[in-house]
């Protein structure tokens, strides 16, 4: 069977980015664990070899077990009986294989049974798994909720809960309610402290909870009596072993069938506070969601890869008018753009994950000792970059996953509409990526301040100073003009001083920024590895240039007075 890591050389290229040396140095605290744990790396080369081997194991399990199970899991799905969830038989096999391989709690410290991996190789594992079965990817990758518990929980909670996740138990984040979707400050699940039991009791309903019958839950609940906004919300840890939560139903969904999306009923469920009261939404959920959004970006890239693989394979095999359809311009145009979006989106994903790695590692070090001035400046720089790039990575990759899945079916023609082909499952699974963990419209809300404060433009101008190969110079010159158009549009909208206008064109401005950033990243990649990325750099630059021109034309010709025509 195929290995979902070694068969994709672009993954190893992104793993071996020069920034990884600094990431490993910080994450490993100059490799101090080698004295205590025999599996801890001795140095940078040893750490990278460890990542490579674990990724190869993940790719092997994905190819030999998860991928063959995907269609059966999609058809069977999970079941609900007596308030509990039972996974599809293929899902159980998948989980068993991943647990036996030690692929849980990957980013957690070794003292808790984790691998102490940075976010970047873990994100690659999430992409690999999602390429085979996005629904199972949800169940397995929700282990990264433990990052929030590690960051904000106390030492006692660390010692009790983190080893369980490293041993293979599952997690969920229980945020959404029937009347609180994107507007999480409206959450009303009630948390009351019971003096007799010396614990918090949770009562209410949660809806659309991914993997809702997990072993450990992070729950957003209203702890402050009489409040109605985000300042009255706290984060709680619910342990399934305590009881008090039943699954009312599993949602009947369009896609990701293997992942149970549950409605949960809390009835005096015992829970404990995670962190401080009143910071549940303001601080902890924001951290939790940023991690989740990076995870959905990885899932989206995996789905884009799957769509491209299916489309390419079918185009090579299918013959019409005496030749394979891949030889027709209309088909190879679609495939080339699919590959360019895949490579551009993946470049953005791993640039983002590396930013996250550096700031998270420095943040963790700050709990042990005071950071130096240089380290504080480094932490501040990468925290800002991570925060600004995360909505781009999630927003653009989820849209590209949907577009690539659409084109994959189009390449298949009528066959793509038949359930016998995997492309229909990929298409259904991809649709949720631009909705959950914050819709693309909400990613735009998160990103727009980095448009208006000039952060994206500053990054783009910094990228312009990075040398590229002679072959890429003509592309880079065109890219400078694209950035100039983005800057002009941004200034035009800002000068209007019309908030409604800014909100209306925000997505266009965000996409212009993202197009420029991804084109730069691809040019950098094509300079270092032309065999892997030169074609995609050319195709994506052509595509992105047209997109920027389209948005620029709209903004320049748009009159704010026309806004009334768009209101329904």
TrEMBL record:
Q: Which Gene3D superfamilies match?
A: Acyl-CoA dehydrogenase, C-terminal domain, Acyl-CoA dehydrogenase/oxidase, N-terminal domain, Butyryl-CoA Dehydrogenase, subunit A, domain 2, Butyryl-CoA Dehydrogenase, subunit A, domain 3
Q: Which PROSITE patterns match?
A: ACYL_COA_DH_2
Q: Which residues form the signal peptide?
A: none
Describe the location of the Acyl-CoA oxidase/dehydrogenase middle domain by residue ranges: 173-268
Query: Boundaries of each Acyl-CoA dehydrogenase C-terminal domain copy?
Result: 452-563
Q: Any transmembrane segments, and where?
A: none
Pfam families attached to this UniProt entry? Acyl-CoA_dh_1 (PF00441), Acyl-CoA_dh_M (PF02770), Acyl-CoA_dh_N (PF02771), AcylCoA_dehyd_C (PF12186)
Tell me the cofactors it needs.
FAD
Q: Which organism is it from?
A: Parabacteroides hominis
Tell me the protein's name.
Acyl-CoA dehydrogenase family protein
Q: Which InterPro entries match?
A: Acyl-CoA_dehydrogenase_C, Acyl-CoA_dehydrogenase_C_sf, Acyl-CoA_DH_CS, Acyl-CoA_Oxase/DH_mid-dom, Acyl-CoA_Oxase/DH_mid-dom_sf, AcylCo_DH-like_C, AcylCo_DH/oxidase_C, AcylCoA_DH/ox_N
Q: Which SUPFAM superfamilies match?
A: Acyl-CoA dehydrogenase C-terminal domain-like (SSF47203), Acyl-CoA dehydrogenase NM domain-like (SSF56645), PG0775 C-terminal domain-like (SSF158494)
Domain Acyl-CoA dehydrogenase/oxidase C-terminal as annotated: residue spans: 283-444
Protein family according to the UniProt entry: Belongs to the acyl-CoA dehydrogenase family.
- List each copy of the Acyl-CoA dehydrogenase/oxidase N-terminal domain by range: 92-169
UniProt KW keywords: FAD, Flavoprotein, Oxidoreductase
């Amino acid at each position: 069977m195929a290995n979902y890591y070694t068969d994709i050389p672009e993954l190893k290229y992104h793993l071996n980015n020069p920034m990884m040396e600094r990431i490993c140095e910080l994450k490993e605290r100059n490799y101090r664990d080698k004295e205590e744990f025999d599996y801890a790396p001795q140095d940078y080369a040893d750490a990278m070899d460890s990542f490579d081997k674990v990724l190869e194991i993940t790719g092997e399990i994905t190819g030999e077990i998860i991928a063959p199970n995907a269609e059966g899991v999609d058809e069977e799905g999970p079941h609900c009986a007596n308030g509990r969830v039972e996974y599809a038989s293929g899902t159980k096999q998948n989980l068993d294989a991943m647990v036996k391989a030690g692929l849980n709690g990957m980013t957690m410290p070794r003292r808790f049974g984790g691998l102490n991996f940075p976010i970047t190789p873990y994100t690659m594992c999430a992409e690999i798994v999602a390429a085979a079965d996005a629904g199972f990817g949800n169940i397995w990758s929700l282990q990264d909720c433990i990052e929030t518990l590690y960051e904000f929980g106390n030492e006692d909670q660390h010692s009790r809960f983190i080893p369980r996740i490293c041993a293979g138990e599952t997690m969920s984040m229980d945020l959404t309610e029937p009347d609180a979707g994107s507007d999480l400050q409206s959450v009303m699940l009630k948390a009351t402290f019971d003096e007799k039991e010396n614990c918090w009791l949770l009562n209410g309903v949660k809806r659309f909870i991914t993997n809702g019958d997990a072993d450990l839950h992070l729950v957003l609940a209203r702890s402050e009596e009489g409040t109605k906004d985000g300042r009255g919300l706290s984060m709680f840890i619910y342990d399934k072993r305590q009881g008090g939560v039943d699954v009312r139903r599993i949602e009947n969904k369009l896609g990701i069938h293997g992942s149970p999306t549950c409605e949960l009923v809390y009835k005096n469920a015992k829970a404990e506070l995670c962190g401080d009261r009143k910071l549940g939404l303001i601080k902890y959920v924001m951290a939790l969601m940023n991690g989740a959004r990076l995870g959905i970006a990885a899932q989206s890239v995996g789905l884009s890869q799957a769509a491209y693989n299916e489309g390419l394979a079918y185009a090579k095999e299918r013959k019409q008018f005496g030749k394979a359809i891949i030889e027709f311009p209309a088909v190879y145009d679609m495939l080339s753009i699919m590959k360019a979006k895949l490579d551009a989106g993946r470049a953005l994903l791993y640039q983002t994950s590396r930013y996250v790695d550096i700031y998270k590692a420095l943040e963790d070090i700050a709990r042990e000792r005071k950071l130096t001035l240089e380290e504080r400046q480094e932490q501040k720089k990468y925290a800002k970059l991570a925060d600004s790039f995360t909505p781009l990575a999630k927003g653009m990759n989820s849209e590209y996953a949907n577009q690539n899945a659409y084109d994959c079916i189009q390449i298949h023609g009528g066959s793509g509409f038949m359930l016998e082909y995997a492309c229909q499952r990929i298409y259904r699974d991809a649709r949720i990526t631009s909705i959950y963990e914050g819709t693309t419209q909400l990613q735009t809300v998160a990103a727009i301040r980095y448009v208006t404060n000039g952060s994206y433009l500053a990054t783009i101008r910094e990228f312009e100073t990075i040398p590229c190969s002679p072959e890429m110079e003509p592309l880079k010159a065109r890219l400078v003009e694209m950035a100039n158009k983005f800057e002009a549009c941004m200034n035009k909208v800002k000068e209007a001083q019309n908030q409604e206008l800014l909100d209306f064109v925000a997505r266009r401005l965000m996409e212009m920024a993202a197009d420029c950033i991804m084109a730069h990243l691809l040019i950098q990649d094509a300079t270092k590895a032309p065999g892997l990325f030169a074609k995609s750099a050319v195709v994506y630059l052509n595509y992105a240039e047209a997109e920027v021109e389209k948005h620029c034309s709209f903004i320049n010709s748009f009159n704010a007075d026309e806004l009334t025509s768009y209101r329904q």
